[in-house]
Amino acid sequence: NGHPDTLTSMNNLASLLVHMRQLDEAEALLKEAVSTACGALGAAVSSDVDATAEIQRLGSVPLLAALAQGSTHKASAAAAGLLSLLTQRGDAGLTDSVSKALRDASEGSPLLVAQLQQGHKLARRAALLLDKLAQESADNRAQMVKLGVVRRLVRMVRRGGPTDGGTLNALGCL
Q: Strand, helix or coil at 161?
């Protein structure tokens, strides 16, 4: 069910699993939560013009594009469907925003890199996802180095930021 309390509980449980170093279970739970959230957002967008404006106001389009490009099949399909709905319901500016976000998402991980400078929870999750991407290919690693991921990860560690397995593994992989 896409109720906000259910999604929050799934997110909290995934955070606990990350702290317990059960990363595969945490990842699976987060992917399920994202897929469910995208489905719920899609239903809201198709029936409510205000939901479209709120998604745009929150700056969620780049995150949805990143999910559409690099997540599980279910989450990718849900995010892509939501982006398609946004394009159909939105104005020319929103359509351009979706196109730009999809282009950026296919060229690397700028959203994840930007999240390395935010709060501990977001930075930790971004580092975990960047580690997974870095392990996938040399092209991904080269793109991350170009985006300054190494410098940001080192800065995180030096400042006493989140130094869980994902952060250190991403740094080591790069």
A: coil
